[in-house]
Records
---
Amino acid sequence: MNSVIASGLLAKCPNCQQGDLFSNYWSLRETCDVCGARFLRDEGSWIAPTAFGYGFGAAVGVGGGVLLIATGTMFKGAEYMLMVIAGVATLVVYPWTKGMWVGMLHGWGLVYPDPVKVVETPVAAIDESEEASAPKVDASDEAIHAVDSAVAEATGEPIA
Ligand SMILES: [Zn+2]
């Protein structure tokens, strides 16, 4: 729960609670500058906070409409004003929901540093660039890479 609060309210890394989550108001960093935890591991995991953001915006818009009708202050063109308000509400909660979501992902063990990459040959460099667009490897593969990298570092010899 601490990590959810840290990342949601303070926009800090849920892993070390020191690094910043965002490079600016809108942009989540890919990894933590302090501990190297990767925040965004699976594109699909952003459906929930995105849906929440839109849901919140819609709720604010609908709530505003109900308020106008209830108080008898509904006016022509109010729907456009409400759309703007709903849009602004969506944008305002966006970093918080994203931050809290990263905190929750961390709670589920899904935010952790990438394994240290050992670039041995140009082939490895090509693999790395392809990896950016290709579907992410699963955690067990990464764990194996992490062990390989650790062994390579310890022995000073690249793994064949
Ligand atoms: Zn961190």
---
Amino acid sequence: MHLQKLSREEIIRKLKEYASEDFEPKSGKLFTIAFEPGIEELKEIIFDAWKMYAEKNMLDFTEFPSAIKLEKDVIDIARSLMNGDKDVVGTYTFGGTESVFLAVKAARDNFLLKKGFTSLPEIVMPVTAHPCYEKAAEYMGLKVKRVRVNTETYRADPDAINEAITENTAMIVGSTPNWPFGTVDPIEELAEIALDKDLWLHVDACVGGFVLPFMRKLGEKIPEFDFKIDGVTSISMDPHKYAYSAIGASIVLFRKSFYKMLSQYANLRWPGYPIVNPAVLSSRSEGPLAATWAVLHYLGEDGYTELARRILNARKKILGGLKELGYKIMGDPTVIIAFTSNEINLFKLCDEMVKKGWVFLAQKGIANIDIPPSVHLTLTPVHENLADDMIKELSECTENLKSIPKSDLEEFIETFGLMMNFLMPTEMDLASISRLLSEIERYMATYGPKLLEALGFEKGLTREMAVVNQMFNSLPPEIAEPLVNYVVIELFRRG
Ligand SMILES: Cc1ncc(COP(=O)(O)O)c(C=O)c1O
């Protein structure tokens, strides 16, 4: 059996060793999924709260009624931030994806109740909406239509949404802001469509829910996006993003209690205890909920306003620096900046910055709807003091990359990708997808190890991701997705 006993010291030593190649969120050099407020005491409070409640299980709130009290308080805060009235109810979940799953389930069931079963219910959303909607759709039997956005503003195009709606549409989505570009969709216009066509409108405020209201207080022009607008049916917002809570914290709010009922799961059909799950998971530690309650009250309105101010300062410095270096800013950024360039290989730029310890996210864009590749920067309060250093090093990397021409391999991947995209049908039916997957299973057995070697993964993870990014991003998603799954399975298998 592969189960070795270790001493307490050995366990700690080993855990430190495993973490040795991780980037440190506290360094402030991550512009990704690390929401770092830069307040040491806040971390202590979060982890104290977490530890106090770690062993309590939200599954049985009759055994641990604190789960009800903590959740009610946290939901009340979220509801007031989103201007919800007393009918608005919510659920605490472990992440934005889980919140979206609940909203999609409720929207699907509401659609089926109203219309009776027709064909697959559909979600219509801008191409910039997070993939968790497709994930929810895949798990729960819906179909997603992604539609073009305005390529000047990178905001949802209400006409495009309107055109894509059919009698099978169950839900439309707007993001505030979206993850790729940090731009806020026109929720008021989407709400008009939703009211007119009697559709569920979900506002994805996973990123912005806990920060945009405070930016607005500081004078920023942020379009309305909450329950003040008739036609908004549900909103998701994540304390583990800009409320700076521990990871495992999201909230979904519903306009009325019946919608929440459609999102829940109850089962009284077995010989065991009654199951009533407000969220997707059943057993859940109360730790993240207690940590969220703690951080919200530790920072309070003033704390969040001050942290929003620091993000605005960071944004001003970084936008200035990027423009001076010749980068084009995509749309009107909020807490996320995306930039692009005709001159610089942005995937390589990300690799060069990683060598200096700065983590940026490379984004592929979508060539056939004029969204170019870009770099994504998630801004956090800790960046206020590091912005100048970052821009200085970015300037050096930019200069170096200007003098490097495209390699033969890059040229090849680009042409190959274009060719594959050209050959691929725009929409695949189930039969073609299953044929493709069985071909891939056959080919991977023979060529999989060669693929890993070619991408530089044969010895595990690499920090040189430019070619990998370019290759996966240039292939049609129907081919790239199974390949990337294969690579990730192998990475985790090999350790
Ligand atoms: C707009 C948006 N919605 C939903 C999600 C999913 O959140 P999570 O990663 O917490 O599941 C994200 C994640 O970045 C997001 O940016």
